[in-house]
Amino acid sequence: MSSNAHVPVLLGPVLEGLNIKRDGCYVDGTFGRGGHSREILEQLGENGRLIAIDRDPAAIEAAPESLTADPRFELIRGSFAQLRQIIDEKGLVGQVDGLLFDLGVSSPQLDEADRGFSFLRDGPLDMRMDPDSGTPASEWLASVDERELRQVLRQFGEETYATRIARANVEARDEAPISRTAQLARIVEEARPPRGEKIHPATRTFQAIRIAVNGELEQLQAVLHQAVAVMKKGARLCVISFHSLEDRIVKRFMRDASREPEQYRGMPDIPEEHRPKLVIVGKPVTATDEEIEANRRARSARLRIAERT
Description:
alpha/beta, 8-stranded mixed beta sheet
């Protein structure tokens, strides 16, 4: 396991952004290995409450007893796209003081070859955040048609050579199933002309397929709307994204939620349901050089913060 496995990204800015109240109710929608949750709990008093969610059973199993034994803490296995249902079942809709979503793949997931997220370690081509549900990347690749694969690579990976890579994958699977991460990485490397880039040639392809297999962008869009519904006035929403697709969705959502609809702009009396739901707090936060040196995962992290009106 890498040295980055338990290092929470942008920890200081997250804690500051959440503006934690000692008796508040908070949600960590992406528990991972609990780095953010641990520090949030440290700032809560005896009447505070922290609900953490993760769909990865390995994350649930690895949760330290120091957290799970704390009566202020509750860890739930599920997708953060179930946020409204989870909070509603606890009778806490409109009572949440802050939410954190740390998007993307955790370091432990990348480090475990059997999870199939990384081209740096050969393993089964899986990529599922929850290995107990959904379709493994190998099965998805075996059935997806070339046109859809090309579109996924372009849209989710922003891959310039999407056409070449899609065609190469279709041709390769006609010869033998694509079932290993090293196998897929080799296909991409051979199909993609060298461009002198700093990132591995397969980076964008692996990102695109992972996003498609897990429905990550759809889940993100769903949870952002649900977050607003469960927050109380003055509550904070903190979202850490790691690539431009995620960040674009978060940016647009916060921007749109901080404005009234165009037809009501400039009007003195705007109906309650059409008034802005959020106000953006500060500018996007990125990691310092010192944090990036200590934790490479932080190099592409971007934190956006908004407050419920």
